[in-house]
Design a protein that fits this description.
Helix content is about 30%, strand content about 20%. The chain contains 4 helices and 5 strands. Strands 2-1-3-4-5 form a 5-stranded mixed sheet. The protein is globular.
Length: about 130
Amino acid sequence: MNDRELLNLAREAAEKAYVPYSKFPVGAAIECEDGTVFTGCNVENAALGSTICAERTAACKAVSEGYRQFKRIAVYGEGENYCMPCGACRQFLWEFSPDMEVLCSKAGGRYVSYKLRQLLPHAFTL
């Protein structure tokens, strides 16, 4: 699967987002080491802390199916800035694959690529 295909899956996932408060749908597609892909969207809640980001939704779906090693994740949002994982998502993903690639998109289909280690250089570890 190439970058564009993974980003397209993330875009499709964003269409399922539940975002009555921010009105900003985000989708994610996480690719496991064996090529299996899981998608997720953000799910907002009136109790803001209960909101689930697209990245964690996709990762939880993968983990609940027994997958623990991720190759990369695509994050899709239609803003004028690149849609980057929040700090909580960065730490969550680090738990499983600190060397994974993170594709971050913005309006117009443009995207950038980082290693998770670049986005979270001082992760919390035990």
